[in-house]
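Researcher: We're teaching a course module on how sequence relates to structure. For the next exercise, students receive a sequence and then see the predicted structure as tokens, so they can try to spot secondary structure elements on their own. Here is the exercise chain.
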Amino acid sequence: MPAGFHSDGSKHATLRDVLDPNVATMQLSGLTLQQRAELVVKRLELQSKIELAMIGAGMIDKARAITEVKNKTKVGRLLIEIEDQMIRNLIERAQKAQSTPGAKSRSRPKR
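Model: And here is the predicted structure for the students to work with:
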């Protein structure tokens, strides 16, 4: 699943690429609206099914979500913001897991 772009902007970068200090990627905050829309469209296309309800917009399925994002409508821009936040959260969680030894495999003892 793409989480950004490689530094030359030629192709999408995975979350692993974005987190790897040896792979040059663009900062999410540095992406243009067009690049952000392209990233979100790619992420939506890779989803098997999408259904969400938005107040004022009604039910949104995968096809409509893609159309709204491509056209950068009000709904599309909101979907872009939602995906931006999702990617930022994924990056933050992955960075915390990398910096905390054993964080990924930590579990509570059974009683």
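Model: If you want an answer key for the exercise: Residues 2-98 form one domain. The chain has one domain: 2-98.
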